[in-house]
Each structure stands twice: as C-alpha cells, then as structure tokens.
Amino acid sequence: MTDRHPTLRRFLTRQAAPIDANLVFLIEDIASACRAIGNTLRNAAFEGAQGSAGAVNVHREDQKKLDLIADDIIARSCENSPDLAALVSEEREAAHWLKTPETGDYLLFYDPLDGSSNIDVNISVGSIFSVARVAEDGDTDVLKPGTDQRCAAYALYGPTMMFVLSLGHGVHGFSCEYGTGDFRLTHPGMSIPEQTSEFAINASRQRFWPVPVRAYVDHCLAGETGPRGRDFNMRWTASMVADVHRILTRGGIFLYPADAENGQAGGKLRLLYEANPMAFLIEQAGGAATLGAERILPLLPESHHQRVPVVLGSAAEVARLAEYHAQ
Ligand code: AHM
Ligand code: MG
Predict the structure, then answer these.
(1) DSSP summary character for residue 206
(2) Ligand 1, atom 2: nearest CA belongs to which residue?
(3) Cα of 239 to ligand 1 centre, how many Å?
(4) Ligand nearest to the CA of 256
(5) For the CA of 254, the nearest atom of ligand 1
(6) Which is deepest, 49, 179, 213, 233, by most CB within 10 Å?
C-alpha cells in the first residue's frame, strides 16, 4: 500500500531533484487547507454554510458563504508557512503581505473555491493554486508571468477528493484516502492524449463568440459529414477544475473566449490564479494552453485580477483553434 500509493509527503521528499524544504511545507499546508475545505463542503448543509454571503467581491460577483470560508481556511493554513511572503486571492482586492519580501520567498496565488455557482446544486467544485518566487529583497511586484511559476495545483472536491500537482516535471494526482485523510499518489504522470473528440464551452454565449471560435465549434458540431470527418462530444460543468480534470484524464479542449459581451473586461477567467496554474498543469501533461493563438504562460500580467481568454487541452485541437485565428 505504502509503496504503490505513496503519501504526498513521501512523494515530495523523494524527488530526484530535491525540493526546498519550505516549499514542501507550503505544499503540505495547501493540501491541509484543501482537506479542511473538503470536510467543510461535506457538512455545509448542516452548518448553514450554503448560499450567498450577501456581499460582492472585487469582480462584482456574488460571494457565496463558502467562497469566504474557503479563502479563510487557506489563509489560516498557509500564513505561518516559512518563506511565504504574500497571498493573492480571487476573494481579496489586494495582495496580503505576511512579511517583508526577501529573495526566493514564495508568493501564493489562489482561487479558494472555483465554480462556486455549483455549490448549492451539489456539483463538483475545486480550489486552484499557483506558487511563484520573489525576485529580490524588497520586491513587492506580484505580477509575475506564468513561466515564473514554481508549481501549480488544484483540489477537486468530487466523488473522490483529489489534489493534482505539478512541480515542473509532469503532473501527478493524489486521492484523499477515506479514514486517514492522507493524499496518496493514485494518478502518476498524467498525460493528455494529443487527438481527441470532446469540447467544452458555454454554448449559451454562442451569439457573442468571435468568428474563429464559432467556426471551430460549427465544424465540430457538423460531425462525421462535416470538415472534421468525425463526431464530437460536448461537456460543460461550469467548474473549471472539473473540466480541466476531465481533460487531464481523457483529453479534449476547453474554451472560455473573450467575446462580444465580456471582451471589454478581457474575458471571464482570471490570469494569475485560474489561467496560469491551469496552463502550467496542462502543458506539463503534454497539452497546450493559449489565449486563442499565443501561449498563456509568457503573458506579463497588468493587474492582480486581470481576465484573459482561455483555450486549453489536447495539443492538436488547441493548435487547430490557433489556425482558425490565423485565418
Ligand atoms: P468563479 O471562480 O467565480 O467560480 O468563476 C469561474 C468559473 C469557472 O470554474 C468556469 O469554467 C466558469 O466560471 C463558468 O462560467 P459560466 O457561468 O459562464 O458557465
Ligand atoms: Mg474561479
């Protein structure tokens, strides 16, 4: 049991290239927070924790009580982590500094509860994390490009609670063992099939889509007798973590384009704590992640809560969408 499914700690401390001990502590603190959030979600109906918090966040979105509870759990679990300098959360307007930044300190970006519109209907939600480093003593700039990420992870609160992590050497999935609460390696070396026939997009926004996205989806929908010469399947959970997990498991493409309605804002999904970590994980699993044509990861952020278009998944499909953009 122990060897076939090593615990997260064993995995982190047995890497070929040893990981900085303070990063191991930070990842363990993140995983502990996820375990606590998973337990809170399970008991939420008994504790009056479902529903709206009656407030809006910096994005003018309705905050759920559980958005705030999850944010608080992560901050409390990680704030004593050695070398962690700042927290940047979807639910907080500004970066929350924990210490004077020194070279090599860590910066934690997170979306505490992604897909939270799904909570009250009991569909899977998740938490997303990205870790980067402080460039030099006193550097308070948190606007790091995704290429600077030291690691990225998400927790999926589904039928099995999972923690999926990349330290830049592949993607590894850990399942939370009932009873011990340990995250144990169950999905080593996750990789995305290059060719697939499944796409994920919120089709209710079709009238707003840019021309290349419309053409791509039309050609998928045309099926066997259309230009793609095969049938496609469609899935949309409205929980990015669940959609990305499906793609890491069996392939496919996910699209949340900037469109005629959200284009002014840059799109819907946020760069620092949604697009960047997911792009890092997807690339590490052999897939691709773009803004439509350009890679997401090199983009230099302009603000904490910047929104961007996101296209990610199987490399061949993401490349095809880039071709539609070029045309
Ligand atoms: P959130 O962080 O406020 O939950 O928003 C992000 C979510 C993603 O999980 C998901 O892909 C998308 O928003 C769903 O959007 P839509 O409501 O248009 O389907
Ligand atoms: Mg989110």
Answers:
(1) G
(2) 114
(3) 6
(4) 1
(5) 11
(6) 213
Q: Using a cut of 0.90, tell me whether the model's pTM lies above it.
A: yes
Residues within 6 Å of ligand 1 by CB: 61, 90, 111, 114-117, 202, 238-240, 256, 268
Residue 30 CA, ligand 2 centroid: distance in Å: 17
The residue whose C-alpha atom lies closest to atom 12 belonging to ligand 1 is 238
Query: From the CB of residue 180, how many other CB atoms can be counted at a distance below 10 Å?
Result: 9
CA 124 / ligand 2 centre spacing (Å): 13
Residue ranges covered by each domain of the chain: 8-187, 198-326
Q: How far is the CA of 191 from the centre of ligand 2 (A)?
A: 23
Cβ-contact 49, 40 below 8 angstroms: yes
Positive or negative CA dihedral for 319, 325, 326, 327? positive
Q: Are 270 and 225 in contact (CB under 8 A)?
A: no
CATH of domain 8-187: 3.30.540.10
Per-residue pLDDT of the chain (327 residues; tens, 9 = 90+): 457 899 999 999 999 899 999 999 999 999 999 999 999 999 998 888 888 877 777 777 778 889 999 999 999 999 999 999 999 999 999 999 999 999 999 999 999 999 988 988 999 999 999 999 999 999 999 999 999 999 999 999 999 999 999 999 999 999 999 999 999 999 999 999 988 999 999 999 999 999 999 999 999 999 999 999 999 999 999 999 999 999 999 999 999 999 999 999 999 999 999 999 999 999 999 999 999 999 999 999 999 999 999 999 999 999 999 999 888
**Top-level class of domain 198-326:** alpha beta
Residue 142 three-state SS: coil
